[in-house]
Amino acid sequence: MARHLGSRVQAATVIETTFIERGAAPIERAEPLSSETRTSAAPTRSVETNLLSGPITVPSPVALGDTGSELHPLGLGGSLFGWTLGTDDSERVLDRFVGSGGSLIDTADSYAAGRSESIIGRWMASRHVRDRVLIATKAGRGAEHPGLRPEAIVAAVDASLERLRTDRIDLLMFHGDDPATPLEESLGAVGALIDAGKVRALGAADFPPDRLIEARVLAANGLPRLQALTAEYSLMRRRGFEGATELVAHAQGLAVLPYFALANGFLGGNVRRRSEAPRDARGARIAAHLGRRGHRVLTALDDIAFRHGCEPATVALAWLLTRPTVVAPIVGVSRPEQVGALLAAASLPLARSEIVELDRASA
Q1: What CATH code would you report for 5-362?
Q2: Is 320 helix (H, G, I), strand (E, B) or coil?
Q3: 16, 118, 144, 180: least surrounded by Cβ within 10 Å?
Q4: Reduced to 3 DSSP states, what percent helix, strand and coil does the chain have, rounded to the nearest 5?
């Protein structure tokens, strides 16, 4: 059952941030949200905003499961850091994200062979922002410590903490299933890390429904409980999540953090013909969506975005935020100026008719 996005923004705060802390490196200020994206269904303080500078509207934070942590309802993916984005460009994206009110930064020990974590760690240290962000990282696919054996998990966490230059990981994710390792052993290792203060909460990436159920049974016997689930989910990729996985996530109260939320960038609407797709692996994934269904979805996004005066990507993410289990989509960006349109999704109330329109187009 879809929820109206207005319930996510019952109260909003208006902030204007140019520096993270006195003496810290400057944070780039995002472009303010268009006044057309703020309607009576998403109440905010009445402020005077011009389109070039001024205050920005930040929606109320949402809870991350039962962890006690709250976050902006859109997370920044760090998979491009150290891969297609160098250190300076990555830091500009991070500056813009946090300066615009973002809080959850998602990475993994396997992203760019650990360079993503290193860039985030250097950035947090130079900006003095560790207490203002939530760090989610993953263990299980790193080349040095693969799998979910207890010793691999402990070694992976210690290595991640060193690269991130921090004393704790806010959300540790099992990076895929490891059928060769009994789940109770993996959970036990994380329990010891939680007791040591190195990990605050646990989640899983791409766990099948039966493993999620097994994990909940084990948690009832005193082992750490899964609080979050990451899974591929977007208007173009619905079947893999909707159904059994979604039902189990809902029943367990898992905070779902969808990745590839814009279908590798396809839902941004910049590629409409195969000739426009980049000639690389990402371009091939985008081109795979250029069929009748993909064009139906883009047409619906265009129409709704025009009504609200926003970008199609904003609408695509706002649709995800109407799903009952979704807490914060995870989206990677390649340029700081892309951040504003993505964060705006949390303040964009979709009408029920618009949700139905997108549901039908993407069916």
Answers
A1: 3.20.20.100
A2: helix
A3: 180
A4: 40, 15, 45
Residue 187 main-chain phi, psi, to 5 deg: -65, -35
Is the Cβ–Cβ distance between 12 and 347 less than 8 Å?
Answer: yes
- Cα-flanking dihedrals φ and ψ of residue 110, to 5°? -90, -10
Is the Cα torsion angle 20, 22, 25, 27 positive or negative in sign? positive
Cβ neighbors of 98 (< 8 A, separation 6 or more) are 20, 27, 127, 129, 132, 133
Among residues of the chain, what percentage have pLDDT more than 70?
83
- Under a CB-based contact definition with an 8 Å cutoff, are residues 264 and 282 in contact? yes
* DSSP-assigned states of every residue in 92-155: HHHHHHHHTT--EEE--TTGGGGHHHHHHHHHHHHHT-GGGSEEEEEES--SSS-SS-HHHHHH
The whole-number pLDDT of residue 258 equals: 98
Residues 330 and 2: their CA atoms lie apart, in Å, by 19
**Nearest to residue 31, comparing CAs of 331, 274, 314?**
314
Both structure tokens of 332: 């990677």
In the numeric block, which tokens belong to residue 218?
């084990």
Residue 270, CA distances (Å) to 255, 287, 302, 313 in order: 30, 11, 11, 10
Return the active site residues: 111
Which run of H or of E encompasses 231? strand 226-232
By C-alpha distance, which of 152, 93, 61, 40 is closest to 331?
Answer: 93
Question: Would you give the DSSP letter of residue 44?
Answer: -
Q: Parse the chain into domains and list their residue ranges.
A: 5-362
Q: Which residue has the tokens 């591929």?
A: 232
For tokens 């499961």, the residue is 65
- The residue with tokens 């947090």 is 124
